[in-house]
């Protein structure tokens, strides 16, 4: 069975997903312990449990993202190969994770296309219209642009896109892991409607959530995980919300929210004052910001924290607050992008906000830092093997508690919190609420909370301000502060989502796009040509033009090869030595007086050698696990050594007919240059209008997300390395016409200069972005710079200095503009 089968072919109540004896152990943690679970067609199966209970780990095993230490997974009776996300995808499993698996550098439409089964996949040329139809069918009011890059989307929009594309796959089993954490009420209703359609058609839905109310509302059966073990599966209609909570935590919880302070207990004199909002927060007071997403409450909170430019004076303890004031601490609701740092431990993360307390004369005491972190982890009940564990390896809720621990240990005067319990289980929520209330009371701290959970705001806050279109329309407190009142104020204050202003200038937006490198390089070529032509009439002569374009053709093919590698997220330092090595090899075969058999061997080696070099580079990176720079540097040295061994001195004269053919021209333009330009155009079309091109960019942008979406990452990366070597081989073949003999050092300078041309042409050093046409143009520009230096009466050093300066400028300009646009709201 494959994903080509539709889920409505299945009989209701037959087993869709079965997990038998699944066990998964991480260092110091038994995440899953002999779990048995069955999900049947035509049901919504809820899975609940505290953070660290194993819910997400279990579904990671079911979707092929994790290899279990024991046990098996069956989809419609077919065993799933452990760790195979592609096979899980083909068998009909679609999953929406807590952090959307969108590829940052692909557009919304390309991300949707990437995960589609073959039977539902549209033509690449129609992606934009196809994606727009899917979003409109979902009735998305966010104004999501199908051509927008995923990295530019707001957190809520990323979740909407991930959910829409998962539902659009019409999977046999749809897994939703905390799907509503970033959604407003209208999107939640649309999601629930889609879930009901899924099960009505015979599909199965696994619904993981900390929101017990939602699970009770949507699920048919509920399975409870606790400490990695399945403690029971129950009919959802037979359990009350309180009973589900008791099953989750294994004990009866008291009141969910701590008691609020009465008016007489709140201190006098405001801690926080925001003029435009007319807001004053008293010592020990907790104030909430509510509103339909996009109406300004989130922006107001970030402005208080100095993270966005505000147009209203802010005062703390009666004194004007500076931007990024140390008296104000912000706790983000988007921990994956703004809160945690991959590679840092729990200890590092807790200490990061508290370095002044832990350092002396600029040096941090490791013992003091460890003691500080261990105390914070204990106080906040963070479940981690030890404080040296990487923070990203913890469950979502434990990551959140690490961030809260670091924030509260700074003893701020104002704590601005966005979604304080997002991704946190019901048991941990109680602890967080109590901590916020206790810290506010004991430290006379002002707390401002923005949350999409109305119940949370009503239960936790002393006052709630309701936002609409950037303004506070209602203030509720005391007996007037109820869920009904807050919801009514939100819904009656506005009927539509306000238009969003652009988060960055048009110029930065253009510079971050795909057309900017080509236009910029084109302008530079024309400007430099005009300047050099004014200095000498010979510059535009047919002789000089032919020579420049012939050299540009060689560099152009090398730059195209580097662009393939860079788009795939790797760098190939072996291109230059490969070009030289091929010339040395061919100096024994494609030479004057060579027999037909010898020539045939030479041409076969021209194909075999770059294939072998590309495969070796790939094997060193993907099999041996070397860094791409280190791996290709090894190949660089090996090829250079082989060239010198074969030809210690230049030797062997190439066949005149070969040299004549390689140097053929149409007028003053070399045919090789025309072929290079045509190749660049074909590769550009392939990059933008084919599945292979989308997969190449996906792997370079985020290999993990690409693999989750069913891309064969290793295969794509191997194709990139081999493709880079083949294009380098063509560059080496053309270089024969210029050197005429087997020179072992002839390709040395092409490695760095080909990378420079690719980067000037817009390729990103971090992968996922690039333009073959712009790289070809950049090769012309770099060659033109070298050729123009003598005409401009500049010293020979400028021939190396100018390309270096252009490369640095391109990296700075493109990287900065892309970063600003990606993080604009």
TrEMBL record:
Origin superkingdom: Bacteria
Pfam families: ABC_tran (PF00005), BPD_transp_2 (PF02653)
Keyword Cell membrane: yes
Alphabetical keyword list: ATP-binding, Cell membrane, Membrane, Nucleotide-binding, Repeat, Transmembrane, Transmembrane helix, Transport
Cellular location(s): Cell membrane
Main location class: membrane
Membrane topology: Multi-pass membrane protein
Domain ABC transporter: residue ranges: 17-252, 251-494
InterPro entries, sorted: AAA+_ATPase, ABC_carbohydrate_import_ATPase, ABC_transp_permease, ABC_transporter-like_ATP-bd, ABC_transporter-like_CS, P-loop_NTPase
Membrane-crossing residue ranges in chain numbering: 538-561, 573-594, 600-621, 628-646, 666-687, 718-737, 749-765, 772-791, 797-815
PANTHER family: CARBOHYDRATE TRANSPORT ATP-BINDING PROTEIN MG119-RELATED, GALACTOFURANOSE TRANSPORTER ATP-BINDING PROTEIN YTFR
Entry protein name: ABC transporter domain-containing protein
Protein's organism: Nocardioides humi
């Amino acid at each position: 069975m494959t994903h080509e089968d539709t889920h409505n072919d299945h009989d209701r109540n037959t087993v869709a997903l079965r997990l038998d004896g699944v066990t998964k152990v991480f260092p110091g943690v038994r995440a899953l312990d002999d779990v048995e679970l069955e999900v049947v067609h035509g049901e919504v199966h809820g899975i609940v449990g505290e953070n660290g209970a194993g819910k997400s780990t279990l579904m990671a095993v079911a979707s092929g993202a994790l290899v279990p230490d024991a046990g098996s997974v069956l989809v419609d009776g077919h065993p799933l190969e452990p760790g195979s996300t592609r096979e899980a995808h083909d068998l009909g499993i679609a999953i929406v994770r807590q952090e959307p698996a969108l590829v940052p550098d692909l557009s919304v439409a390309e991300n949707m296309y990437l995960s589609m089964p073959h039977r539902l996949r549209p033509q690449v040329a129609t992606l934009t219209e196809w994606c727009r139809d899917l979003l409109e069918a979902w009735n998305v009011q966010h104004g999501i642009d199908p051509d927008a890059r995923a990295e530019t989307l707001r957190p809520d929009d990323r979740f909407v896109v991930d959910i829409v594309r998962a539902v659009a796959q019409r999977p046999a089993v749809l897994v939703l892991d905390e799907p509503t954490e970033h959604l407003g009420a209208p999107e939640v209703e649309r999601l629930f409607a889609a879930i009901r359609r899924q099960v009505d058609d015979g599909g199965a839905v696994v619904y993981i959530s900390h929101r017990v109310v939602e699970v009770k509302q949507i699920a048919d059966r509920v399975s409870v995980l606790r400490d990695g073990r399945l403690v029971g599966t129950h009919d959802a209609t037979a359990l009350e919300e309180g009973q589900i909570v008791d099953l989750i935590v294994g004990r009866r919880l008291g009141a969910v929210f701590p008691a609020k302070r009465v008016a007489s207990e709140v201190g006098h004199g405001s801690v926080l004052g925001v003029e435009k909002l007319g807001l004053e927060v008293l010592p020990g007071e907790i104030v909430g910001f509510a509103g339909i997403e996009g109406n300004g409450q989130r922006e107001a909170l970030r402005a208080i924290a100095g993270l966005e430019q505000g147009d209203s004076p802010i005062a703390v303890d009666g004194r004007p607050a500076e931007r990024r004031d140390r008296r104000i601490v912000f706790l983000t609701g988007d921990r994956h992008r703004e809160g945690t740092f991959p590679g840092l431990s729990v200890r590092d993360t807790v200490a990061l906000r508290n370095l002044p307390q832990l350092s002396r004369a600029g040096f941090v005491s490791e013992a003091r830092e460890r003691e500080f972190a261990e105390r914070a982890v204990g106080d906040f009940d963070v479940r981690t093997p030890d404080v040296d564990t990487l923070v990203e390896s913890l469950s979502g809720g434990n990551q959140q508690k690490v961030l809260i621990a670091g924030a509260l240990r700074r003893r701020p005067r104002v704590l601005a919190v966005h979604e304080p319990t997002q991704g946190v289980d019901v048991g941990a929520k109680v602890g967080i609420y109590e901590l916020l209330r206790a810290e506010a009371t004991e430290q006379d701290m002002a707390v401002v909370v923005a949350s999409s959970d109305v119940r949370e705001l009503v239960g936790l806050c002393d006052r709630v301000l309701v936002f609409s279109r950037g303004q506070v329309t209602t203030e509720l407190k005391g007996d007037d502060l109820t869920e009904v009142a807050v919801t009514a104020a939100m819904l009656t204050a506005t009927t539509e989502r306000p238009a969003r202003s652009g988060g960055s200038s048009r110029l930065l937006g253009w510079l971050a796009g795909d057309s900017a490198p080509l236009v910029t390089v084109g302008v530079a070529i024309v400007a430099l040509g005009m300047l050099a032509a004014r200095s000498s009439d010979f510059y535009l002569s047919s002789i000089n033009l032919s020579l420049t374009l012939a050299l540009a053709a060689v560099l152009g093919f090398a730059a195209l090869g580097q662009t393939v590698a860079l788009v795939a997220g790797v760098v190939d330092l072996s291109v230059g030595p490969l070009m030289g090595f091929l010339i040395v090899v061919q100096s024994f075969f494609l030479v004057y007086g060579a027999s037909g058999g010898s020539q045939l061997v030479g041409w076969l080696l021209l194909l075999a050698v770059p294939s072998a070099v590309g495969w070796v580079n790939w094997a060193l990176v993907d099999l041996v696990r070397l860094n791409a720079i280190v791996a290709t540097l090894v190949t660089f040295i090996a090829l250079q050594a082989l060239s010198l061994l074969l030809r210690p001195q230049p030797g062997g004269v190439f066949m005149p007919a070969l040299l004549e053919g390689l140097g053929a021209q149409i007028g003053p333009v070399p045919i090789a240059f025309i072929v290079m330009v045509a190749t660049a155009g074909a590769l550009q079309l392939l990059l933008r209008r084919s599945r292979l091109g989308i997969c190449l960019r996906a792997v370079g942008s985020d290999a993990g997300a690409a693999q989750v979406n069913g891309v064969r990452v290793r295969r794509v990366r191997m194709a990139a390395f081999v493709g880079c070597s083949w294009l380098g081989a063509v560059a080496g073949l053309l270089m024969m016409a210029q050197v005429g003999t087997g020179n072992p050092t002839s390709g040395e300078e092409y490695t760095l200069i080909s990378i420079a041309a690719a980067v000037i042409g817009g390729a990103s050093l971090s992968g996922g972005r690039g333009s073959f046409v712009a790289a070809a143009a950049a090769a012309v520009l770099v060659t033109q710079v070298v050729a123009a230096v003598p005409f401009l009466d500049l010293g020979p050093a400028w021939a190396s200095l100018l390309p270096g300066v252009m490369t640095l400028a391109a990296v700075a300009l493109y990287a900065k503009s892309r970063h600003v646009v990606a993080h604009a709201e």
